[in-house]
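[recover] target loaded
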């Protein structure tokens, strides 16, 4: 069993590797019972969104053994949600991300620094 932050960092690494844009990891543990972390990312197209989600699913479910509880939205390709229990991953197209503006909605959440991952 992996710690929630370890799962979140593994997912963020997968997004970085596949050239996700504007990756934000938010610690929401003190704000909601939905999850410990929200990971938000933008893809350049519906195909890129699905590629990013597939990479996260492989990194977390296959490599760490943490089961994907739910995947929603993959048909439209403008917003895909991956629920790993302690981590919820939101991958958007740019227009959809601006519309829903989750960072503003969850502005009380503590951002997690991903600089070390991006330099690796």
């Amino acid at each position: 069993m992996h710690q929630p932050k370890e799962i979140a960092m593994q997912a963020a690494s997968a997004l970085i590797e596949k050239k996700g844009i504007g990756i934000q990891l938010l610690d929401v543990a003190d704000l909601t019972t939905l999850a410990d972390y929200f990971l938000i990312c933008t893809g350049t197209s519906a195909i890129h969104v699905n590629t990013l989600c597939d990479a996260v699913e492989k990194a977390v479910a296959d490599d760490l053994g943490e089961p994907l509880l739910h995947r929603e939205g993959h048909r439209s390709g403008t917003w895909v949600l991956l629920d790993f229990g302690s981590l919820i991953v939101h991958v958007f197209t740019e227009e959809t991300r601006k519309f829903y503006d989750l960072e503003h909605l969850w502005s009380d959440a503590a951002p997690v620094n991903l600089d070390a991952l991006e330099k690796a």
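[recover] notes: The first strand starts at residue 21 and ends at 27.
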